[in-house]
User: Fold this.
Amino acid sequence: MAVMGKKKRIVTLVTVHAVLILLVITALFPIALVVLNSFKPHVAIVANPLSWPESFTPVNYSSAWSYAKFGIGFKNSIILAACTIVIVLFTSTLGGYVLATRRGKVVNLALVYFMIVMTIPIQLFLFPLYYVMSYLKLVGTVVPISFILAARNIPLALFLMRTFFLNVPKELEEAARIDGANTGHVLWYVMAPVVSPGLLTVSVIVGLNAWNEFLITSTFLQGEKNFTATLMLRSMSGQFGSDIGIMMAGAMILIAPVLIFFMITQRYFIDGLVSGSVKG
Assistant:
């Protein structure tokens, strides 16, 4: 029986690792293909997209960077992502604290409302939003668009922050109030440091969503000087749509910062998700 149990565990372990390796290959193969083809001329890619590059010269990268004006695009993407993160962190911290520490019908209605909002597609609001932004003469400016992106990300961020606040012991807040701290002091000086993994988790999710956003930015941002990096890559398709090598290099320039950022923060991101998944 012991031998059979050991064999069963070995088979299970091998199966699990085989499935995980298959998933890793499935996820990394497209990225590896883009990297290889970004160093090859268009003719070589058409002949054999799976072949190894003859030389790793950055000609495609320099062409993609200069013609797509990624310098301007990165600047606008960073501004958009930073403003969106700040707005979402501020509102979700306040809202999550209230939803976690208060009880009553109003809180329950608010939770239901935000659940419903998460299911409504943003496409339904594009026309009225465009009318309002056009009336206010804000179409084509980066910072106001961050409020739209923030509104789209706030419901999920609220639920995440609420979960983190629920995991904070009530005794911690009670002790602070006994010492004379008001609600503002309790929130920013006592609770916020404790839920800092949640703040980092929300920042990563919102930042990646803002960086990769295309529908809203392509609708409201006009003129190359206001384009984000994603829109700059899209603008290349007209001029370099027939040169796959340059398009691949542009794609790598766009996704490389995201990959590097996520690799640096993934440990904190996963720890934040795990520590915030105890209560709901």
Observations:
- The CA atoms of residues 106 and 112 lie 10 Å apart.
